[in-house]
Design goal:
Strand order of the largest sheet: 1-3-2
Structural class: alpha+beta
Shape: globular
Strand content: 5-15%
Bound molecules: zinc ion
Distance between the termini: 41 Å
Low-confidence stretches: 112-120
Number of strands: 5
Radius of gyration: 18 Å
Helix content: 40-55%
Length: about 240
Protein backbone atom coordinates (compact mmCIF):
# COMPACT_ATOMS: atom_id res chain seq x y z
CA UNK A 1 0.00 0.00 0.00
CA UNK A 2 1.84 3.08 -1.19
CA UNK A 3 0.87 6.64 -0.42
CA UNK A 4 1.41 7.98 -3.92
CA UNK A 5 -0.89 10.41 -5.69
CA UNK A 6 -4.13 8.76 -6.67
CA UNK A 7 -5.81 8.52 -9.99
CA UNK A 8 -9.18 9.31 -8.43
CA UNK A 9 -11.07 8.80 -11.68
CA UNK A 10 -9.71 5.26 -12.01
CA UNK A 11 -10.37 4.52 -8.35
CA UNK A 12 -13.98 5.60 -8.76
CA UNK A 13 -14.41 3.34 -11.81
CA UNK A 14 -12.74 0.42 -10.01
CA UNK A 15 -15.03 0.98 -7.07
CA UNK A 16 -18.20 0.94 -9.18
CA UNK A 17 -17.17 -1.75 -11.65
CA UNK A 18 -15.14 -4.16 -9.52
CA UNK A 19 -15.07 -3.70 -5.79
CA UNK A 20 -18.73 -3.02 -5.04
CA UNK A 21 -20.20 -5.74 -7.32
CA UNK A 22 -17.53 -8.36 -6.55
CA UNK A 23 -17.91 -7.98 -2.81
CA UNK A 24 -21.66 -7.54 -2.98
CA UNK A 25 -21.66 -4.12 -1.30
CA UNK A 26 -24.95 -2.88 0.09
CA UNK A 27 -25.92 0.78 -0.29
CA UNK A 28 -24.72 1.25 3.29
CA UNK A 29 -21.33 -0.36 2.56
CA UNK A 30 -20.96 2.02 -0.37
CA UNK A 31 -21.68 5.04 1.80
CA UNK A 32 -19.29 3.91 4.55
CA UNK A 33 -16.48 3.07 2.15
CA UNK A 34 -16.88 6.28 0.15
CA UNK A 35 -16.84 8.46 3.22
CA UNK A 36 -13.83 6.77 4.79
CA UNK A 37 -12.05 6.84 1.45
CA UNK A 38 -12.77 10.57 1.09
CA UNK A 39 -11.12 11.31 4.42
CA UNK A 40 -8.16 8.96 4.09
CA UNK A 41 -6.77 8.15 0.68
CA UNK A 42 -8.10 11.28 -1.03
CA UNK A 43 -6.23 13.25 1.63
CA UNK A 44 -3.18 11.08 0.99
CA UNK A 45 -3.48 9.47 4.39
CA UNK A 46 -3.08 5.72 4.66
CA UNK A 47 -4.60 5.56 8.11
CA UNK A 48 -7.66 7.27 9.37
CA UNK A 49 -8.92 7.69 12.91
CA UNK A 50 -12.62 8.14 13.53
CA UNK A 51 -15.38 7.39 16.00
CA UNK A 52 -18.42 5.41 15.04
CA UNK A 53 -20.72 8.24 16.16
CA UNK A 54 -18.87 10.73 13.91
CA UNK A 55 -19.10 8.42 10.90
CA UNK A 56 -22.74 7.56 11.58
CA UNK A 57 -23.60 11.27 11.86
CA UNK A 58 -21.82 12.15 8.63
CA UNK A 59 -23.60 9.50 6.56
CA UNK A 60 -26.92 9.95 8.38
CA UNK A 61 -27.24 6.36 9.56
CA UNK A 62 -27.62 4.81 12.98
CA UNK A 63 -24.46 3.88 14.85
CA UNK A 64 -25.48 0.24 14.90
CA UNK A 65 -25.97 0.08 11.13
CA UNK A 66 -22.71 1.93 10.56
CA UNK A 67 -20.80 -0.36 12.92
CA UNK A 68 -22.16 -3.48 11.20
CA UNK A 69 -21.03 -2.15 7.84
CA UNK A 70 -17.54 -1.29 9.13
CA UNK A 71 -17.29 -4.84 10.46
CA UNK A 72 -18.35 -6.28 7.11
CA UNK A 73 -15.76 -4.17 5.30
CA UNK A 74 -13.07 -5.32 7.73
CA UNK A 75 -14.09 -8.96 7.34
CA UNK A 76 -13.89 -8.62 3.56
CA UNK A 77 -10.43 -7.09 3.65
CA UNK A 78 -11.58 -3.70 2.33
CA UNK A 79 -10.62 -1.99 5.57
CA UNK A 80 -7.82 -3.11 7.81
CA UNK A 81 -8.36 -2.42 11.49
CA UNK A 82 -5.17 -0.99 12.94
CA UNK A 83 -6.46 -0.05 16.36
CA UNK A 84 -9.63 0.20 18.35
CA UNK A 85 -9.44 2.10 21.60
CA UNK A 86 -11.72 2.03 24.58
CA UNK A 87 -12.83 5.60 23.72
CA UNK A 88 -14.61 4.03 20.74
CA UNK A 89 -12.09 5.34 18.27
CA UNK A 90 -11.14 3.23 15.30
CA UNK A 91 -7.99 3.53 13.24
CA UNK A 92 -8.29 1.84 9.87
CA UNK A 93 -6.31 1.54 6.66
CA UNK A 94 -8.65 2.06 3.74
CA UNK A 95 -7.67 -0.12 0.80
CA UNK A 96 -8.09 1.06 -2.76
CA UNK A 97 -10.20 -1.23 -4.96
CA UNK A 98 -7.15 -2.43 -6.84
CA UNK A 99 -5.40 -3.21 -3.58
CA UNK A 100 -8.24 -5.55 -2.71
CA UNK A 101 -8.40 -6.84 -6.27
CA UNK A 102 -4.63 -7.41 -6.37
CA UNK A 103 -5.18 -9.98 -3.72
CA UNK A 104 -7.72 -11.71 -5.96
CA UNK A 105 -5.15 -11.74 -8.76
CA UNK A 106 -2.60 -13.20 -6.36
CA UNK A 107 -5.15 -15.84 -5.45
CA UNK A 108 -5.59 -16.82 -9.09
CA UNK A 109 -1.83 -17.05 -9.49
CA UNK A 110 -1.48 -19.04 -6.27
CA UNK A 111 -4.12 -21.50 -7.41
CA UNK A 112 -1.86 -22.46 -10.30
CA UNK A 113 -2.51 -24.92 -13.11
CA UNK A 114 -3.43 -27.77 -10.75
CA UNK A 115 -6.52 -25.92 -9.62
CA UNK A 116 -7.63 -24.11 -12.71
CA UNK A 117 -10.59 -26.45 -12.94
CA UNK A 118 -12.01 -24.42 -10.06
CA UNK A 119 -12.83 -21.87 -12.75
CA UNK A 120 -13.55 -18.18 -12.57
CA UNK A 121 -16.45 -18.65 -10.18
CA UNK A 122 -14.29 -20.22 -7.48
CA UNK A 123 -14.67 -17.22 -5.18
CA UNK A 124 -18.46 -17.54 -5.42
CA UNK A 125 -18.55 -21.33 -4.93
CA UNK A 126 -20.94 -22.40 -2.19
CA UNK A 127 -18.70 -24.42 0.12
CA UNK A 128 -21.63 -25.84 2.07
CA UNK A 129 -22.93 -27.43 -1.10
CA UNK A 130 -21.09 -30.77 -1.01
CA UNK A 131 -19.30 -32.93 1.52
CA UNK A 132 -16.03 -32.66 -0.41
CA UNK A 133 -16.15 -28.86 -0.30
CA UNK A 134 -16.99 -28.83 3.41
CA UNK A 135 -14.07 -31.18 4.04
CA UNK A 136 -11.77 -28.88 2.09
CA UNK A 137 -12.49 -26.06 4.57
CA UNK A 138 -11.72 -28.39 7.50
CA UNK A 139 -8.54 -29.55 5.77
CA UNK A 140 -7.38 -25.97 5.20
CA UNK A 141 -7.39 -25.27 8.96
CA UNK A 142 -5.14 -28.29 9.47
CA UNK A 143 -7.21 -29.87 12.23
CA UNK A 144 -7.25 -26.82 14.49
CA UNK A 145 -10.08 -24.47 15.45
CA UNK A 146 -9.75 -21.27 13.43
CA UNK A 147 -10.65 -19.21 16.51
CA UNK A 148 -9.07 -20.81 19.60
CA UNK A 149 -6.48 -23.02 17.84
CA UNK A 150 -7.61 -26.04 19.85
CA UNK A 151 -7.02 -29.38 18.15
CA UNK A 152 -10.21 -30.65 16.56
CA UNK A 153 -11.61 -34.12 16.28
CA UNK A 154 -14.11 -34.78 13.48
CA UNK A 155 -17.00 -35.37 15.96
CA UNK A 156 -16.46 -32.00 17.67
CA UNK A 157 -15.94 -29.68 14.75
CA UNK A 158 -18.21 -27.61 12.54
CA UNK A 159 -18.14 -24.89 9.93
CA UNK A 160 -18.77 -21.30 10.99
CA UNK A 161 -19.69 -18.20 8.99
CA UNK A 162 -17.16 -15.52 9.92
CA UNK A 163 -19.63 -12.83 8.85
CA UNK A 164 -22.98 -14.28 10.01
CA UNK A 165 -25.47 -15.08 7.28
CA UNK A 166 -27.86 -12.65 8.94
CA UNK A 167 -25.37 -9.91 8.02
CA UNK A 168 -25.20 -11.11 4.42
CA UNK A 169 -22.21 -13.37 5.00
CA UNK A 170 -21.79 -15.86 2.14
CA UNK A 171 -20.87 -19.55 1.90
CA UNK A 172 -17.63 -18.66 0.11
CA UNK A 173 -14.33 -20.13 1.29
CA UNK A 174 -13.53 -16.53 2.30
CA UNK A 175 -16.27 -16.61 4.88
CA UNK A 176 -16.26 -20.19 6.20
CA UNK A 177 -13.89 -21.60 8.78
CA UNK A 178 -13.51 -24.87 10.63
CA UNK A 179 -13.93 -24.48 14.37
CA UNK A 180 -14.79 -26.25 17.61
CA UNK A 181 -18.39 -26.46 18.83
CA UNK A 182 -17.60 -24.21 21.81
CA UNK A 183 -16.36 -21.35 19.64
CA UNK A 184 -19.24 -21.83 17.24
CA UNK A 185 -21.81 -21.35 19.98
CA UNK A 186 -19.93 -18.63 21.89
CA UNK A 187 -19.15 -16.41 18.92
CA UNK A 188 -22.82 -15.86 18.11
CA UNK A 189 -23.42 -12.70 16.08
CA UNK A 190 -20.14 -11.09 17.14
CA UNK A 191 -17.52 -10.24 14.56
CA UNK A 192 -14.58 -12.62 14.39
CA UNK A 193 -12.27 -9.86 15.53
CA UNK A 194 -14.35 -9.13 18.59
CA UNK A 195 -14.46 -12.84 19.34
CA UNK A 196 -10.66 -13.19 19.03
CA UNK A 197 -10.25 -10.34 21.49
CA UNK A 198 -12.62 -12.00 23.95
CA UNK A 199 -10.57 -15.23 23.72
CA UNK A 200 -7.47 -13.14 24.37
CA UNK A 201 -9.04 -11.55 27.45
CA UNK A 202 -9.89 -15.04 28.71
CA UNK A 203 -6.20 -15.99 28.20
CA UNK A 204 -7.12 -18.60 25.64
CA UNK A 205 -4.97 -16.84 23.04
CA UNK A 206 -1.52 -15.36 23.68
CA UNK A 207 -0.32 -11.99 22.30
CA UNK A 208 1.35 -13.69 19.37
CA UNK A 209 -1.61 -15.95 18.71
CA UNK A 210 -3.98 -12.98 18.68
CA UNK A 211 -1.75 -11.17 16.18
CA UNK A 212 -1.57 -14.32 14.07
CA UNK A 213 -5.33 -14.83 14.19
CA UNK A 214 -6.07 -11.23 13.14
CA UNK A 215 -3.67 -11.66 10.25
CA UNK A 216 -5.36 -14.94 9.30
CA UNK A 217 -8.69 -13.11 9.37
CA UNK A 218 -7.35 -10.49 6.95
CA UNK A 219 -5.95 -13.23 4.72
CA UNK A 220 -9.23 -15.12 4.80
CA UNK A 221 -11.27 -12.10 3.72
CA UNK A 222 -8.69 -11.27 1.06
CA UNK A 223 -9.07 -14.75 -0.42
CA UNK A 224 -5.55 -15.87 0.40
CA UNK A 225 -6.58 -18.94 2.40
CA UNK A 226 -7.53 -21.26 -0.42
CA UNK A 227 -8.98 -24.64 0.58
CA UNK A 228 -7.37 -27.70 -1.03
CA UNK A 229 -10.16 -28.65 -3.42
CA UNK A 230 -9.58 -31.71 -5.55
CA UNK A 231 -10.90 -30.98 -9.04
CA UNK A 232 -12.40 -34.49 -9.30
CA UNK A 233 -14.38 -34.17 -6.06
CA UNK A 234 -15.62 -30.61 -6.49
CA UNK A 235 -18.96 -31.67 -7.90
CA UNK A 236 -19.44 -34.76 -5.71
CA UNK A 237 -22.30 -34.66 -3.23
ZN1 LIG B 1 -12.42 -23.10 19.27
Amino acid sequence: MKNTKLNAEQVWKDFEDLLAPQLNFSVIDRAVYSHLFRHSRLERKLRFRFSMSWLAGRIRLSEKTTRQSVRRLIARGVLRLVERSCQAHHVVCVRLPQEVRAVCAAETAARGPARTSCGAGFAETDFLQTRALRRAIHAREGGRCFYCLRRLIPQRRCLDHVVPQANLGSNSYRNLVSCCLDCNSKKGERSAEEFFRSLYREHRLSDDELTGRLRALDDLAAGKLIPPVEPSTKGAK
